[in-house]
Amino acid sequence: MSSKKEDLLVAAEKLFYRHGFHAIGLKAIVQEAGIALMTLYNHFDSKEALILEVLNRREQTYFDLLEQTVKTGSGSVEQELAAAHLTWLKNHASNGCMFLRAKEEFGSEESSIIAQTVKNHKENMLRFFQAHGLSHAEALRLSLLFEGSTALAETTSIQEVEDTLTALVNHLKVS
Asked: Do residues 142 and 166 touch, judged by C-beta distance below 8 A?
């Protein structure tokens, strides 16, 4: 990937996450990235295409973190996934879930490719958990805990969110 495309994606993710998708125009993104508007159009046909790539990259980064933590961890799968999710929250999620923010802005119409991308992301998370040995019910419970912790991290100290999520995940294994 070219460095200019990388700069565009980094700037777009930062601005979309901080301000929302509709509030940020392409001119703001190219200004933040320090490139020409024409360069953006050399890499992306539309703002929608840029948003989709930002969401897909964000998903890949998140799943890479989960995967790496599960591979190197020594606790239960749920504990390792929760530790990875907490790392994500500390480093990437002070504004909540970028995917749900996209769904809020673009609606839930079946025809919206962005709404479909959000739906696919949430389904991919369940499949990811199941691929690591969790039943559908266990994956759903863990997903609910992750979604709740992401939302709560917007308004509550990350330490309190961490303590509570860790306690709840540890409780899952006892039940």
From this structure: no
